[in-house]
Design goal:
Largest sheet: 8 strands, mixed
Protein name: DUF1023 domain-containing protein
Helix content: 40-55%
Radius of gyration: 31 Å
Distance between the termini: 61 Å
Number of strands: 15
InterPro entries: DUF1023 (IPR010427)
Pfam families: Abhydrolase_8
Structural class: alpha/beta
C-alpha cells in the first residue's frame, strides 16, 4: 500500500519501537538457546564418544550450533531497521506539524488528504462555474492535484500566470480569462471588486504544498527502503543466514573499509557478523548498525565468560566487578529512547568501549565525547550517562533533526600521576582520527555536522590528535582542560570553531605549569609562588600543565560558562549536569544553534 499524507499523519511511531523491542527480545532468547545447545553438545561429547553414531551426532550438532549462531544478529537487525523507521516517521510527522502550524490563521487551508488551497471570499452569482453563490476556495492546481498551488506569485496580489492547461502552476479552466484582463497579462483568481488573497498567502501555500509533497515522497522512499531491507533479511533466513568465509581487509583507510563492505553480499555480511565479530566490530568504516550487532555478540560472550569466572572457586580476580559493569551496560543498551549502538568492545586489560546514543550513520549532527583520567571498563557508567545527557538536551533543542552522541573510550586514559604525561594522548591519535574518519565514511546522505568534545585529559587527547593530524570535526570543545598540547586555538585546524569552558573553581586550575614546577626545582616553593603570581597577574593563570588554558583569553577559543561546584573536584565533573549552562551551550554547539562567543568565566 502506497503511503499517503493521511496515513503518515495518523501513524504512531511507538508501534514500530514496540515491535523493535520484541524482535530484540527474540534475538536474545534465541541466543540463549544457542548457548544452551552448545553447552549440551559439549557435555554430550564428554560422555558419548567413539563410534559412527557419536561422530555423526557431534557433527550434526555442531552444524546446527553454527547455523543457530547466525540468527540472533539477523534478528537484531530487524530491531535496528524498525527503530530507524520509527525515527524517520517521527521526523517527517514533525515536518508536517510545522507546515500545518505555518498556515494556522491564514487564508491557506490543508484538507484531510493533504490538498492545499487558498480561501477566497464569497463569489457573486454569475461567476465562474463551481464558485458562484458562496464561500469557496481556490484549488492549488487545476484538476485538484493534491498539494500543488499556482507557481507564479510575483505578478501582484493574487496573480498567477495565465493558462488553461492542467498541471502545477496553471489557472483552473473555469477562471482563465474570466476576470477580463487583456491578452498577455496574468488572469485574476477572483472577480473584480472582491478582495483577493494576499500574495503572501499564495506564496505560503506554494511553500507548504512543496513541503507536503517532499515529506510524502520521503515517507514513501523510507517505507520502500525498510521493506527492501526486511525482504532481504527474510531471503537470508530461508538460507539459514549461511554464508561462505570472507577475509577481512588487512589494511586500508576507513573509506577503503566502507567500499569493501559495500561490495559484499548479504550472506557474506551475515557470516562476518556471526563468525568474526571481534575483528568486524572494531573496523572503522563499517556501518554503525553492523558494528552494533557484532559487538553485542561479543558482549554476550564476555558476559558468559565472566559469569563462569565469577562462579569459579576461587573467583577470578576482578571478574565480579567487571561482570557488574558489563551487566549494567547490557541493561543500558536495552533502553529504547534513544536506541543505543555498541560500536566497540574490547575486554582486554582496562578495556575499550564506544557507545552511541542514536544512529551516527543517519544523524544530522554527531558528537564524539572523549573522557579523561581513570575511565575504564571497570568504571564507565558516568561517562555513558554524560553522552546520553548531551544527546537528550540536543534532541530537545533541535527536534526536527537527528542527533547522535558517542562516548569514545577507544584509548587507555592514564591513571593518577600518569596524567602528567602526554603518552596516552599520543597513543590515541591514530585511533581517534580513524574513528572520526569512519563516521564520515559510513554516513548516509548529506555529511553530518561533527563535534569532538574532550573533558579533562580527554581534551588533551583531542588537542594532540588535531595538532598532529587533522581529525574530522566541525567543532572542537574542551571542558575542564589541563591544556590541549597547543599554545592557542590558531594551532588547530578550525580556530573559529574551538570552544572551551572551565568552572571557576575546577581543580584543574590548581595544577602548576611545567615552568612553575621547574622554578620550584631551581629555587624552592618561593620561586614557584613567584612564577604562579606572575602567571596569574600577567596572563590570568593561563599556563597549565599541558599548555595554555583553553578557557583563557590568550588561547583564543570561544569561551562559554559552566556552574561553580561545591568544591574543586565536584566542579570538575559538573559540565554535563542538567542544571549547568555548559550542557545547554554544548547542545547548541552540537546542533549548530550556537551563537557568538561569550566572555571567559573567571
Amino acid at each position: 500500500m502506497t503511503v499517503s499524507y493521511a496515513m503518515l499523519l495518523a501513524a504512531d511511531p511507538a508501534r514500530w519501537v514496540d515491535s523493535a523491542v520484541a524482535w530484540r527480545r527474540l534475538s536474545r532468547a534465541l541466543d540463549d538457546h544457542h548457548d544452551e545447545l552448545s553447552s549440551g553438545l559439549t557435555r554430550q561429547g564428554q560422555v558419548w564418544h567413539g563410534g559412527t553414531a557419536a561422530v555423526a551426532a557431534r557433527e550434526s550438532g555442531a552444524a546446527l550450533v553454527r547455523r543457530l549462531g547466525t540468527a540472533p544478529p539477523a534478528l537484531l537487525e530487524v530491531d535496528q531497521l524498525l527503530w530507524r523507521h520509527a525515527e524517520r516517521i517521527r521526523l517527517l510527522q514533525r515536518r508536517l506539524a510545522e507546515a500545518l502550524s505555518a498556515v494556522r490563521g491564514t487564508a491557506v487551508q490543508v484538507s484531510a488528504d493533504g490538498h492545499v488551497s487558498v480561501v477566497v471570499p464569497d463569489i457573486p452569482r454569475g461567476g465562474p462555474p463551481g464558485l458562484s453563490g458562496g464561500q469557496g476556495s481556490l484549488p492549488a492546481a487545476a484538476g485538484g492535484a493534491r498539494g500543488s498551488v499556482p507557481a507564479g506569485t510575483a505578478g501582484g496580489q493574487g496573480d498567477v500566470p495565465a493558462g488553461t492547461g492542467g498541471g502545477r502552476g496553471s489557472v483552473p479552466a473555469g477562471l482563465a480569462g474570466w476576470a477580463g484582463d487583456a491578452p498577455g497579462r496574468a488572469a485574476r483568481l477572483v472577480p473584480f471588486g472582491v478582495p483577493a488573497p494576499g500574495a503572501s498567502d499564495v506564496a505560503l501555500a506554494v511553500r507548504v504544498s512543496a513541503e507536503i509533497d517532499a515529506v510524502v515522497r520521503e515517507a514513501r522512499a523510507g517505507d520502500e527502503d525498510t521493506a527492501r531491507r526486511l525482504t532481504a533479511l527474510a531471503k537470508a533466513a530461508a538460507q539459514a543466514w549461511s554464508g561462505t568465509p570472507v577475509p577481512l581487509p588487512a589494511s586500508g583507510t576507513p573509506a577503503d573499509v566502507a567500499r569493501w563492505w559495500a561490495g559484499l553480499t548479504e550472506t557474506e555480511r551475515a557470516w562476518l557478523v556471526a563468525m568474526r565479530p571481534e575483528e568486524l566490530g572494531r573496523l572503522d568504516g563499517v556501518p554503525a548498525a553492523v558494528r552494533d550487532r557484532a559487538n553485542r555478540e561479543l558482549l554476550d560472550r564476555e558476559l558468559d565468560r565472566l559469569r563462569d569466572a565469577a562462579a569459579a572457586h576461587p573467583p577470578a580476580p576482578g571478574a565480579q566487578q567487571r561482570l557488574t559493569e558489563l551487566t549494567g551496560l547490557a541493561a543500558r543498551l536495552d533502553q529504547t529512547d534513544p536506541r543505543a549502538y555498541l560500536l566497540r568492545l574490547d575486554p582486554s586489560g582496562d578495556g575499550r568501549l564506544v557507545v552511541a546514543f542514536g544512529d551516527p550513520d543517519a544523524g544530522d549532527h554527531v558528537a564524539t565525547y572523549v573522557p579523561g583520567v581513570g575511565t575504564s571498563l571497570d568504571g564507565f557508567a558516568v561517562e555513558v550517562d554524560r553522552a546520553a545527557a548531551l544527546q537528550a538536551r540536543a534532541a530537545a533543542l533541535a527536534p526536527g533533526a537527528t542527533t547522535a552522541t558517542v562516548m569514545w573510550l577507544g584509548y587507555d586514559p592514564p591513571d593518577g600521576l600518569d596524567a602528567a604525561s602526554e603518552r596516552a594522548a599520543l597513543a590515541a591519535r591514530g585511533d581517534l582520527g580513524a574513528f572520526q574518519a569512519g563516521l564520515v565514511a559510513s554516513h548516509e546522505g548529506e555529511p553530518a555536522h561533527l563535534s569532538l568534545i574532550g573533558h579533562s585529559y580527554g581534551s588533551l587527547t583531542v588537542g594532540v590528535a588535531e595538532r598532529d593530524g587533522t581529525v574530522a570535526a566541525d567543532e572542537i570543545v574542551a571542558l575542564g582542560s589541563p591544556g590541549m598540547g597547543v599554545g592557542s586555538a590558531a594551532e588547530l585546524a578550525r580556530p573559529g570553531h574551538v570552544w572551551a569552558s572551565t568552572s571557576p573553581n575546577d581543580i584543574v586550575l590548581n595544577a602548576p605549569s611545567k615552568g612553575e614546577l621547574a622554578l620550584s626545582a631551581l629555587g624552592g616553593p618561593a620561586y614557584m609562588f613567584a612564577g604562579s603570581t606572575v602567571d596569574a597577574v600577567v596572563r590570568g593563570n593561563a599556563d597549565l600543565w599541558h599548555g595554555v588554558d583553553p578557557s583563557s583569553e590568550q588561547f583564543g577559543a570561544r569561551v562559554f560558562p559552566s556552574s561553580r561546584g561545591t568544591d574543586p573536584f565536584h566542579a570538575h565533573g559538573l559540565y554535563f549536569d542538567e542544571h549547568s549552562p555548559a550542557l545547554q551551550t554544548m547542545a547548541e554547539i552540537v546542533t549548530g544553534e550556537s551563537g557568538t562567543a561569550t566572555s571567559p568565566t573567571r
